[in-house]
Amino acid sequence: CIANQQVHRGLNAFITPIPRAGQWLDRVKEADQRREQGNSKSPVDGRLIAIKDNICTRDLPTTCASGILDKFNSPFNATVVGQLEDAGAVVAGKTNLDEFGMGSNSIYSRFGPVKNVGRDGQEFSAGGSSGGSAVAVAAEQCYAALGTDTGGSVRLPAAYTGTVGFKPSYGLISRWGVVAYANSLDTVGIMGRTTSSVRDVLSILNRYDEHDPTSVSNSSRRRILSQITSRSISKPLRIGVPIEYNIAELSPLVRKAWLRSLADLQAQGHTIHPVSLPATKHALSAYYVLAPAEASSNLAKYDGVRYGTQSEDPTYSNTRGSGFGSEVQRRILLGTFSLSADAMDNYFIQAQRVRRLVQQDFNAVFNTTHPLAAINDRDAGHSKPGDVDVLVCPTVPSPPPLLSDLTSPSTGSSSSSLYAYVSDVFTVPASLAGLPAISVPVTLAESSPNSNNSDSDAGQVAGIQVIGQYGDDELVMQVGELLE
Ligand code: GLN
């Protein structure tokens, strides 16, 4: 892995790679010995795990790919980093991202774009914002990686790089020490080349953390477990297909991969059922009101006095104007506007209502009730159980764009921003509802030599997403594994 980090410097997956030699090497050797003696500390003992650079590490800088955190070294580890190290894992460096997690292509980084190099050498978008983590995993520069997923930032890069990206139920994995983007949506996600490596990492991180006020308590974890123990892929599952995801803009490749996945599940004895999630079409707009609103308030603290690197002429506007990149500034403006007295009712409040509708849509199709739903909601009949176990749909409407198309001056930065927002259309609904979701790579079969249909998409990979009811993280992973 580490040799690959040295070789693949040009991919720009890492902002801070680990040094060629160092204490970490001894830790890997010790773990190897433990494995030989059959007493490994955990499934990730001695494994190299890359960490997105918006997750605090004591031994390496944390930049969030931003000028405003130019000289920031955290005095502590995020809980997730501590948990991994206690389990014997070794931090494999800090990965590149869209500044503060805002973006869908990992191009809004002070350290330059992440490169997702195709078989023919062409440079594609790595997806964002956890594009560095995705490329580090895909290029075997680490065993697995942590990212963050607020509106799709782990699932979208997974889809673009042919890796597995898992976003847990909101509150399952600690966010203490993770730099906040939009607190009501932020989750720590896991990326790996297979679902089983993702599961290895989840087994370490799936714990209550008293430092994180949104961490699900132990008693709620027990309640969730008791509700879901009866469900597994050993029984035929009812697979929901959300009809609103079948949009005209879906690329033929993605549509084929979706159909192929459904056919595979059917061949394994599961049944397919169309379902409707009517609020889906408003989810993207609601997300792009709510996330910037929370971001604008989170980023207010970076003023060069309380937090952040001061500019040479240290006024508030100079510090923020030079410290933040263009996309972050755009989000701050959007968020400040939608929270202003005149706009609040028409934007922020409406978006909160749409969020509630999106949550109710999901509750109406799953055959289990949301284990943490307020009792009032249940009484009001909003969470009347539907009849599907999981939903299967694409992760993103199209294959990755070429980097040159995103960064060329002719595209213009605001139109490329809009393009990026649209690519989140299938990932934000699960984020608004706090549900577990995984993106797995599905490869289209090579056409048989005897077939007359020459299929130009054969052998290509597209990301397919599995979404489950809150707390059904294990089931979501099991179904993902069936599709891999
Ligand atoms: N692309 C989305 C955004 O820019 C999602 C980002 C994320 O999940 N961190 O907000």
TrEMBL record:
Family annotation (SUPFAM superfamilies): Amidase signature (AS) enzymes (SSF75304)
Catalytic activities: L-glutamyl-tRNA(Gln) + L-glutamine + ATP + H2O = L-glutaminyl-tRNA(Gln) + L-glutamate + ADP + phosphate + H(+)
Annotated organism of origin: Penicillium angulare
Known function: Allows the formation of correctly charged Gln-tRNA(Gln) through the transamidation of misacylated Glu-tRNA(Gln) in the mitochondria. The reaction takes place in the presence of glutamine and ATP through an activated gamma-phospho-Glu-tRNA(Gln).
InterPro entries xrefs: Amidase (IPR000120), Amidase_CS (IPR020556), Amidase_dom (IPR023631), AS_sf (IPR036928), GatA (IPR004412)
Top-level taxonomy: Eukaryota, Fungi, Dikarya, Ascomycota, Pezizomycotina
Any Gene Ontology biological process: glutaminyl-tRNAGln biosynthesis via transamidation
Full protein name: Glutamyl-tRNA(Gln) amidotransferase subunit A, mitochondrial
Residues at the catalytic site: K52 (charge relay system), S129 (charge relay system), S153 (acyl-ester intermediate)
EC number(s) per entry: 6.3.5.7
Gene Ontology MF annotations: ATP binding; glutaminyl-tRNA synthase (glutamine-hydrolyzing) activity
GO terms for cellular component: glutamyl-tRNA(Gln) amidotransferase complex; mitochondrion
UniProt subunit comment: Subunit of the heterotrimeric GatCAB amidotransferase (AdT) complex, composed of A, B and C subunits.
Location(s), subcellular: Mitochondrion
